[in-house]
Design brief:
The complex is a heterodimer of chains A (230) and B (466). Chain A is of the alpha/beta class. Helices cover 35% and strands 16% of the residues of chain A. Chain A folds into two domains: 36 residues, no CATH class; 188 residues, Rossmann fold (3-Layer(aba) Sandwich). Chain A has ten helices and eight strands. Chain A has a four-stranded parallel sheet. In chain A, helix 10 links the parallel strand 7 and strand 8. In chain A, helix 5 crosses helix 7. With 466 residues, chain B is of the alpha/beta class. Chain B folds into three domains: 92 residues, no CATH class; 163 residues, P-loop containing nucleotide triphosphate hydrolases (Rossmann fold), CATH 3.40.50; 150 residues, Rossmann fold, CATH 3.40.50. Helix content of chain B is 30%, strand content 21%. In chain B, helix 11 links the parallel strand 17 and strand 18. In chain B, helix 12 crosses helix 13. Chain B starts with 11 loop residues before the first helix and ends in a 6-residue tail after the last helix. The chains are: A alpha/beta (230), B alpha/beta (466). The interface between A and B is medium-sized, with 16 and 16 residues. Bound molecules: zinc ion (ZN) (4 copies). One zinc ion (ZN) binds next to strand 2 and helix 3 of chain A. The site of one zinc ion has 8 residues of chain B, from loops.
Chain lengths: 230, 466
Amino acid sequence: MARCLFCVEEMKVVLTWRSLLLKKEAMTICERCEGKLKKLAGETCSICSRELDKNYRIEDLCLDCVRWEKDKKWSGYLSINISLFHYNEFLKDMIAKYKYRGDYALAEAFVPFLKDKLKDMNFDLVTFIPLSNERLMERGFNQAQALTDLLGLNTVELLTRLHTEKQSKKSREERISLPQVFQVTKPDLLKQKSILIVDDIYTTGSTLRHAAKALKTAGATEVSSITLAR
Amino acid sequence: METTISSPPFSPELQNHLTGRLLLASEIPFSPAIISDQIKHGYVSVTSGVKCVNGQYNCVRCGNQNSALFYTFPCKICNQDCTYCRACIMMGRVSECAKLYGWIGPDLKFAVPDKVMSWDGTLTSGQQTASDCVVEAVKRKGELLVWAVCGAGKTEVLFAGIEAGLLAGKRICMATPRTDVVLELSPRLKRAFPAIEVSSLYGGSEERSKASPLTVSTTHQLFRFSEAFDVVIIDEVDAFPYSIDDSLHYAVNKSKKPSATTIYLTATPSKQMQRSYRSGKLQAVTIPARYHHKPIPVPEMKWSGNWQKQYLQKKIPPVIASWVSERLQQKIPLLLFFPSIQVMEQVIPLFQTLSPKLETVHSQHPERKERVQALRNGEVPGLLTTTILERGVTIERLDVAVIGAEHEVFSESALVQIAGRVGRSFTYPTGTITFFHYGKSKAMVEAIYHIQMMNKEAWKRGLLDG
Ligand SMILES: [Zn+2]
Ligand SMILES: [Zn+2]
Ligand SMILES: [Zn+2]
Ligand SMILES: [Zn+2]
């Protein structure tokens, strides 16, 4: 008998013609939990996937992305970010259990949703946002790498962290102005390649833009990203 | 504490923190250097949190052995595939490479004054008998069931036993499944034993690190203990989730020393416990009468017809409507128990036609306490509720009805607990409890029998006023 990976309730496994025909991924969480994950929908920002609010957009971009793209230092590095879900209370709990409590198994809950999105994305190589060594030793795994591992994609560790300070303590300005956050470790691998970065949460977008800038500067042709939450 | 010159020094702070516990490194606020030094001297034990025996994993902290609740992942700490326990992950991950540390150095001795108890209340004769049994059990070791009816005053029955234990240098833990009960008991014990350090443990409490002679804890917090207590008293042993969660039983057992006394306290022991008592396997003492010497109101069964169908037709069954109206008129506070939140939410508009001030209370309500208080204060004439209020609620002059009493959520013990809400106060020792039903259930009949038996025993033992 299968149990929901998150709430541990029993699940009915139903194989319908629809699920067989569409080759839908087998779900590892129950319908109730799945229902609490709110997909980003409607009109979304064409760079960062944010749902567009009429007071917070210029054409098809949200004002945050407009600001990023206006800035010569950042313009054009991150082509597109796809995020799966709203970072609501439920997903906050789920991600907290996953990465802070260290429940690696929950990566399996996210994989079917990621696979579904990745079908429409083009990339040559997959990488992930690295953790500082200190965090990695605390948690035992990198929450972004665990996702790529379970996705079974051709993944390469391309980045390392230059700083270990807690990001959350810094203001947006401070984060953007940090000169270098990441270093590229295998530049020869990414020349002329388009790279997909996997991470758990898109908050301000600065982490992913720092990573994208490092990768492009080292020779990647294009950088996109996918995250669970936005 | 005496140390001989030849033995290497131990850290008294670490001794205090680790005694009787089994903790992850992250739960021990001491430097790795101190810990490894104390391990070297043989004062601290180290064990893997998850062990694999004959291909079966088991979690040393929570006792989980269900293979579906273990997961193996590429661990960067030990650099190999590493299995961890998902059952207790909310307390911090326990895995094959995560060690649990315990104290095996010199015993921690608590300083106990000659006089520990300041409580000087008097006990009813029913309470006194039970109290004597508790004292004896604390001295004798082994198990004792204290089967005390709702409103018997069971906490005071423990005081003499706790006093005897403390004076004998024992470490005592009072455990309960419910945080509410910890919050209520802790100040009472602090008042009764002012010279003793009392620590209270529940999810989110902060007194985590002090070892004390008297501990009040949720059963859940006992996962972090190991061979700590000489006496464990489990209050409301039949309450959720202890009643259905085997891992909590494991936690309680692990927290006891091998020679410990265990005292179970409840108004509604499980069938299994009742059987062991009747067969003589489990020693027990009953307190069949309330502290006010009046019998417990016996539930009355009333047929309500197909209540579900009537509600769907937007009608309250007439017997129920008139039961409620009478009490509204006489200003008697009332509680109506429903089998589920859904049913209750469906029917509240109907009941509000009888009085717009009727309200609902259920487990997910943030204002649960405030609404109960409003009923107590007379600001609200009555509440519709679910089994969430079956325990711990005392309201003067209360009348209670169970709607759909035949429903499976109303077990014998739930019904006895619900009936136990009525007639609790000295000034108003009576009241009515009615089971409205659409066909009697076995549990209903057994609950009534249970209460009648207790009243009968109370008469026989001369515990009731004539
Ligand atoms: Zn679920
Ligand atoms: Zn955007
Ligand atoms: Zn466990
Ligand atoms: Zn490991």
